[in-house]
Here is the input.
Amino acid sequence: MMKDLVKHVANDTGLSNNKTKVALGIVLNATDRQGAPIAELIFTKVPGARTMAARSGATTGAATGLIARMIERTPGGRSEVAFQMIRDLQCAGLGHTEISALLPSVAGFAKANLGFASEGHLGDFLCASEALEAVDAA
Here is the structure.
């Protein structure tokens, strides 16, 4: 399943397989730190995804402590995690076009193959489930 995810994202974004793996690790780490529902869905259904996210977090210096994770789920913390994710993707060599294709590609794969039910734009992708429920109710 991981190979399918990497292939899908590489095809959508034009990234090499190696850059795609780095980018996926960064995105999965950020979504995990945010408590986003898509992170747990991917971790549950795509073997190796949690390890990829953890390795990426170790490489980029992402926070790992309980208190830091709680802070990252506050409004200001959420913004910082999103900004850091973009910076990390840029440091990994991705341009604006590749970054803008990345999140919808991952969400599209999750919708088509894993049962993800959100719209897949950046706000949905990084938010926690209670925020998704508020958006869906509106």
About this structure: The mean pLDDT is 85. The two ends are 34 Å apart (CA to CA).
